[in-house]
Design a protein that fits this description.
The structure holds two protein chains of two kinds. Chain A is an all-alpha fold. Chain A contains ten helices and no strands. In chain A, helix 3 packs antiparallel against helix 8, helix 8 packs parallel to helix 9 and helix 8 runs antiparallel to helix 10. The chains are: A mainly alpha, B alpha+beta. Chains A and B meet through helix 7 and helix 8 of A and helix 2, strand 6 and helix 3 of B.
Chain lengths: ~250, ~350
């Protein structure tokens, strides 16, 4: 009951903003060419969905995010585990990653434009770069923070190094991995949007840029609403998975 | 079961040539202060750290055998249960990684759950268990692999005193029943006394003395050992007479003490620790049990947390220890005539 009440009270401010937005535009306080009303934005949203433009743009962006994020997360997690579990691997790779980590993903854009050119590979590479490093370092921290005594116990019970890694170290590093994932899922969407705005002709970012050149503010807002919702949904999915995996014991 | 032997065990900075033999089925206690190398020695036996010297199980060196193959059960101070596994999964971990059949795992886990009286906890995660329950699970997990040797590293330290005593009694019973060679580490003399068939006093990476509790208390090898075991007062006794209600009257020199004694047995000495010797300026009221007149001979550590007072009680030099505040309120000085009370529950018979 209390939870339902909280959900209702959470919606109230959003509804209030929508009502105020609709009212100020309809009463002429703000010209509709500068800020279309909420109902206008929704109308254009439905039109864009029905004519398939928004759905297709979203699909292309989603595909890039899924591929880029999957590659970045899996590589980051695998290397994070390897570095956390093996000092030689850590000492070898850490100096390189330490230098590359501070470079923002979009900082690679000019170079990647030359190396890769304008293709799907460009945003995928950028998403890979933006998700790889945080996942790597979160996993590394997770692996390193596993209680050494648990590893010692597992050894005395007869576990091999690989069994300790798979059965003890990785499961215990899961909360840290999910922290990285939660941070980076939203970041991947922001990155793909930026890349599509600058260099890719199809996708949510490209749709927003096209709308900007035609002064279709309602379409730009539609894209931003989709971005906001998709980031929120991504975070909720990750939160759900994390709870599913760790709620019993954490 | 297995006989354990350590020959000239050394480890870079901590262990300085440890030689030790633990008999088959013996419950052997390693007693020493923090930093004396007790845990390091357990890690050597487990093969978890580098060392020089030889560790032998039943006369066979195991130095080149990795930890996973030594077949040792270890229980640490912190229960170190795997937090992401249920109690049942924790206990099954050892047999499972040893690729034992599912049926055999199920049977042995059930046996352990029953033995440790934790069947009702099997589906619970460690975060929901109390300290005592966690240690029971940790013991079950160590025993389920049928280890050659069981190593216990201060396993009951984090439990409250009453539960600790209960766990000690239960563990001793279990160890006797399973007849498993056990090396038990503690810094608590009382725990060592209650558990150990034999005790090794360890300090600064060396074993200072090995013997039964009686042997160590009766004849501490040197001042260091005497200090570590708490500088007990030892009164040689001549005769005793059984009374009712589990009591006996023991004659030691010129004094007669009332002591707890359940059934007749030879008594040679009465031991009492300095903290169980109370001093009064005037004769205390009430029954005159184990209260004797004496004279203050010396006062030591006046400014430290605990003050030590030596008193001549009918020819016995008795040491008493008290907190500084208690000493200040007592207001005694050397040469004063005082009264001394030996606390009944503090009197031990050897």
């Amino acid at each position: 009951m209390k939870q339902r009440l909280t959900k209702v009270t959470n919606i109230i401010p959003i509804l209030a903003v929508i009502i105020i937005w609709e009212t100020v535009v309809r009463l002429g306080f703000v010209p509709s060419y500068f800020l279309p009303s909420f109902s206008q934005v929704m109308c254009s949203f439905i039109t864009l969905v029905l004519n398939g433009e928004l759905v297709y743009s979203f699909y292309r962006s989603l595909l890039r995010v899924i591929i880029g994020l999957s590659l970045g997360v899996s590589t980051g997690v695998i290397l994070g585990i390897a570095m956390g579990y093996n000092r030689i691997v850590e000492n070898t790779l850490n100096p390189i990653f330490y230098l590359l980590y501070p470079i923002p993903a979009l900082g690679w854009l000019p170079l990647l434009l030359i190396w890769i050119g304008i293709s799907d590979l460009l945003p995928i590479t950028l998403i890979f770069l933006c998700s790889f490093f945080p996942l790597l370092y979160n996993t590394l921290t997770g692996v390193k923070s596993v209680d050494k005594q648990l590893v010692m116990v597992a050894k005395t019970l007869g576990a091999s190094d690989i069994q300790i890694l798979v059965e003890i170290v990785i499961p215990l590093a899961v909360p840290n991995i999910f922290t990285g994932l939660r941070l980076e899922a939203g970041m991947a969407w922001r990155t793909v949007l930026a890349a599509e705005m600058v260099a890719i002709p199809i996708g949510l970012g490209a749709l927003a840029m096209k709308a900007q050149s035609l002064l279709l503010i309602d379409v730009i807002i539609d894209v931003l609403i989709v971005l906001s919702l998709v980031c929120l949904i991504s975070e909720k999915i990750i939160e759900f998975l994390e709870k599913k995996l760790t709620k019993d014991w954490l | 079961m297995t006989r354990l032997e350590l020959v000239d065990i050394r480890n870079s900075y901590i262990l300085k040539g440890i030689n030790l033999k633990v008999n088959d089925g013996e419950l052997f206690v390693l007693l020493g202060p923090s930093g004396s190398g007790k845990t390091t020695l357990l890690n050597v036996i487990s093969g978890l750290i580098n060392y020089t010297g030889t560790v032998l199980f039943d006369g066979t060196p195991v130095d080149n055998i990795p930890t996973a193959k030594r077949n040792i059960g270890v229980v640490f101070q912190e229960s170190s249960l795997f937090p992401h596994m249920t109690v049942e999964e924790n206990i099954a971990f050892g047999p499972r990684v040893r690729k034992i059949s599912d049926k055999a795992i199920k049977t042995s886990v059930e046996q352990m759950l029953k033995l440790m009286k934790i069947e009702h906890l099997k589906d619970r995660y460690p975060k929901t268990l109390s300290g005592g329950e966690k240690q029971r699970v940790a013991i079950a997990r160590a025993l389920v692999i049928k280890p050659k040797i069981l190593l216990m590293d201060e396993p009951f330290n984090n439990l409250d005193p009453r539960l600790r005593k209960y766990m000690r009694d239960e563990f001793k019973h279990l160890q006797r029943m399973l007849h498993i060679t056990t090396l038990f580490v503690t810094h608590d003399m009382k725990e060592a006394k209650e558990l150990g068939d034999r005790i090794a006093i360890m300090k600064d990476g060396e074993i200072k003395q090995i013997g039964t509790y009686k042997e160590i208390i009766s004849e501490p090898k040197d001042d260091e050992v005497f200090d570590f075991i708490g500088s007990p007062n030892i009164l040689p006794c001549d005769s005793y007479e059984m009374l009712e209600h589990g009591l006996a009257k023991v004659k030691c020199g010129n004094i007669t003490l009332l002591v707890p004694l359940d059934e007749p047995r030879p008594i040679q000495k009465v031991v009492i620790y300095p903290e169980d010797v109370y001093i009064y300026h005037n004769e205390p009221k009430g029954p005159k049990l184990n209260i004797f007149a004496g004279e203050v001979l010396d006062i030591m550590n006046k400014n430290s947390f605990k003050v030590k007072v030596t008193i001549n009680v009918h020819g016995f030099i008795v040491l008493s220890e008290m907190l500084r505040d208690e000493f200040s309120s007592l207001g005694i000085s050397v040469g004063d005539k005082v009264f001394v009370k030996f606390i009944l529950k503090g009197l031990q018979l050897l």
